[in-house]
Amino acid sequence: MNLLFDTHAFLWFSEDNPSLSKKTKLIIENPENNCFISMASLWEMAIKISLKKLNIKLNFNQMLEEIYKHDFILLPIDFDHTVELTSMDFHHRDPFDRLIIAQSIVENLTIISIDKVFDKYNIKRIW
To answer: Does pLDDT of 59 surpass 90?
Structure first.
């Protein structure tokens, strides 16, 4: 399965936060699954850290190391992802989540997220 982390899911996994469901953690750790981290998530974290709205255990400079340590794949933001945004309904107003949803549609990825509003986009989501 090809999985795309929502930002909180990646942080919870990285920090071994009990908010991440055990079922989801097992799916992430299954070596048969490919896990993707969107550049949108890194962008979101960087902005929220600079605004003092996000406090993480890791130093942000180590985030790329954390991604590669788990054999996750960094997903760049491509033009096709932004094209998808032009036709998406506004069920969700968060620009980072909207971009992650668009990436999941274009790349046919299952999103790992606790956020049920994602389901309104008719995407695959696990939690």
So the answer is: no
- pTM as predicted: 0.93
| Closest among 47, 39, 48, 35 to 5, alpha carbons compared | 35
CB neighbours of residue 16 within 10 Å: 9
We report the CATH number of the domain holding residue 77 as 3.40.50.1010
CA-CA distances (angstroms) from residue 37 to 33, 48, 52?
A: 13, 17, 22
Domains identified in the chain, total number: 1
Closest CA to 73 of 111, 110, 36: 36
Residues 74-102, mean pLDDT to the nearest whole number: 95
Please give the pLDDT value at position 58.
82
State the pLDDT confidence band at 28, using cuts at 50, 70 and 90.
very high
Answer whether 60's CB lies under 8 Å from 38's CB: no
CB 58 within 8 A of CB 66: yes
